[in-house]
Structures are given as structure tokens and as C-alpha cells.
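Figure caption, in words: inputs first, then the predicted bound structure.
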Amino acid sequence: MTVESVRPAAPEASEPNEPPLAGGAVPMLGHGWKLVRDPLAFMARLRDHGDVVRLKLGPKTVYAVTTPELTGALALSNDYIIAGPLWESLEGLLGHQGVATANGSLHRRQRRTVQPAFRLDAIPAYGPVMEEEAHALTERWRPGETLDCTSESFRVAVRVAARCLLHGEYMDERAERLCTALATVFRGMYRRMVVPLGPLYRLPLPANREFNRALADLHLLVDEIIAERRASGQKPDDLLTALLEAEDENGDPIGEQEIHDQVVAILTPGSETVASTIMWLLQILATHPEQAARVRAEVESVTGGRPVGFEDVRRLTHTNNLVVETMRLRPAVWILTRRAVTETTLGAYRIPAGADIVYSPYAIQRDARSYPDHLAFDPDRWLPDRAKDVPKYAMSPFGVGNRKCPSDHFSMAQLTLITAAVSAKYRFEQVGGSNDATRVGITLRPNRLLVRPVRW
Ligand code: HEM
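Bound structure (protoporphyrin IX containing FE present):
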């Protein structure tokens, strides 16, 4: 499949011009069918046709930004807000008043409330829970048994986020319910985003009923967590306390709906992204035994054989580089969208007010123009003297600018610790029936990864 482009006539020297239209559009559906059929390959080829290109999705024009430099410019500019098809579909899940979907002054106020929980100096306080969860994972496993990596990864991701950020051991049983609800909800949201059939999703079909049940359970769980914290009268120094005590611009307590939406907006992006990344890390360890052995050797040299701890993370440089390289080639967040609030420019191109813009961290991070041997899995490319050659914004799995993921340090600490803990104890083999091909949803993850842990 190729993406031919129809380039416009040569522009006036200084006048911003209309981006070229990507070729291959078909009547009615435009490029939509290509996006549905093979979205990753489609996004990865767009740069061949321009730094910014126009796409037709049905009757709608969407702009795709394809270079690291311009994605950085887009994310850092105040001319764009969070909106567009991805966010509209997520609003049904995340609510309208949470930090992930709000804009403007509401967003700035909410970021101020959540940010302290994720600051670099706040992370060590989560160390004991991260450590406990990483080791509990390896203790659950028996050598030779088959592990369903989807449920194992979801489980640990939800437990770490819920226990660290919302505190309380009551999370133990609820984490299981959260996992089930979130998995179903994310599947349904993606379907609703790429195949927007509107009213058909309201029909009482089994899949719709399952989706509605899971969504209702998710909201119920969040209400339970909030009610229980209030009833306890306790105010531990955590994100939930910060949300419950937050005030609006006038110094009044924020409303119940906003508290609820904020908890959902933090738990949901947090668990799906981390879970997908853990699945990819297990896939890498299973398919690159030499890398698994290097991680194990590094952990041993740092710990001298004792159980790896949170305070070891900063010395596990190769393990950290392996996590980064995994996120480069298999980023959980593969597509992001924005909307122009005013007529503006990106590079040499004119972007009209109201335009929806998409870009793909997946495409940017696999681009041969940014990375030598771009498809090779090579954690050493993150050694300082090589990493300095990576173009700015060519590796931004947590985003850039005022919408950057607040959880970058939190997530990296957790992912490095889990990778170290599982690799110290086991190597992994894929088993029959495992399917590690990429499954495209709201995040990218392996279709159904099944592995067997084997003692070293
Ligand atoms: C591997 C792990 C993760 C990845 C790759 C990731 C990635 C991202 C990306 C790319 C964005 C920016 C979206 C944009 O620019 O439009 C984002 C935003 C966000 N992430 Fe993460 N994330 C991860 C983990 C987490 C965790 C663990 C949490 C919370 C517990 C979290 C909470 C959020 C929130 C609340 C936002 C919205 C921020 C805002 O709009 O101000 N993320 N994440």
C-alpha cells in the first residue's frame, strides 16, 4: 500500500500554503478505510508526502503532522487544545471535568492539584508499594506455568496506581474489579472511535450491554473509593486527599462530579498505558533472550543477589535503556490529537481555525530519518554519547508541553523496577497459542501474549 500525495502548485515564497492531500482517498470514506485497515503502516508512511498532510476522513479534513520538530511545535503552542476524535470518544469514559480532557483555566487548575503527587521528589514515597507489587508478581508465578500477560500486566498496573495514588489496602479486592471493567471499557471505546455508528451502540446487543455494565461498574467503584475515604475521616498525603480538598478559582470546594471525573481521568490513562508497556516488556524479554540475560546480569551486579529495591532503580541504567527502547518501538500511546483554536501555521503550512490535527508517536519514533537502523531493538542507542544524536522530540512517549503526562517519573520508576524484578528471577518463553502481533486499540499492545517463566 502506498500513500501518493498530490502536491499543490509551488507556493509564494513567504505565504503559508495548504498542506498536500495524502493520496489514496476513496469516495465517501476518504482515507478512513486505510486508517481502519492498517493504521500503523498508514501513519508511518505519511512523512514521505510532507511535513504536514491533509487526510479525508469521510467528509471531514484532518491534518497529520509528521516530523519531530513540528509535533514539538504543535504540542508547545497555545493555538491548539485537547480535542478531536480521540478525546471526544474518551470523554464518554473520562467525563468532561477531568484533567485529561479539560482545557484552559480549568485544566491549569487541575494540573496544579495533581502535579505534586507526581513530582520527582514525591516518587520515593511510592517505592515500598512499587517494590512489594513487583515482587508479589514474581511470587504469584510458578516456573513452567502459562501466564496470560494481559491480565497479569493490567493487574499490577492498576494495583500500583490505585495503591500509590489513592492509598488504602481496600484496593486489593477492588483492583480486580477495576481491571475487568477497564479492559472491557477500553475495547468498547476504541470501537466507538474508529467505527462511529452512533445510535447503534445504544441497541441492547450483548456487546453493548457488556460495555455499559463495565462502564457503570467503573463509575460505581470510583464512587465507592471516594465515599470510603470520606467515611474513614483520614487524610493521608496522597492524590485522593489533594482532589478531595481541591478548591476552584474562587476558593470554593470543587464539585462532586469534578472529583469523580478527576479520579477516573487519572486511573484510566494510568492503568491502560502502563499495562500495555509491561506486556511489551515481557514480549521483548521472551523474544530477545540475550537482552533478558543482560538485564539479569545488571541487576545481580547492582544488588549482589538480594531482592531488587526501589533505591536500585537509578543504577539500573541498562534496564532503564531497555524500557526506553521498548517504548520507542512499541509505544503504548500511538496517536494523539489536537484542535486549532485559531487560524495558525505549522512550519510552512496554514492550519485553519477549528482544524483537527493528529500525530503518531509510533511513526515519529520509528522514522529512519531520526534513528539509524530504525527498526532494530537496540537499548544501547540510549547510551549518552549516542542518545545526543536523536533529534529533539523524536522520542516523546509521554508527550510534550502543558499536556505532557504527569506520570513520566512515576511510570519509568515502576517499569524499570518491574523489569528488573521479573528478570532477576525468570527468563521467559512464548508458548503455543500466544499471539504477539500488535493489536491496535486506544493503546498498542500484543494481541494475546502467553509466556512461560523459566528459572535461570
Ligand atoms: C507507560 C506509561 C504511560 C505513558 C506512555 C503515558 C503517555 C501519556 C501521553 C503521551 C500523554 C499526553 C497526551 C497528549 O499530549 O495529548 C499522557 C497524558 C496523561 N497521562 Fe499518561 N502515560 C503513562 C502513564 C500514566 C500514569 C501511570 C498515569 C496516572 C496514574 C497517567 C496519567 C495521565 C494523565 C492524567 C494525562 C493527562 C495530562 C493532561 O492533559 O494534562 N499516565 N500520558
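The two ends are 44 Å apart (CA to CA).
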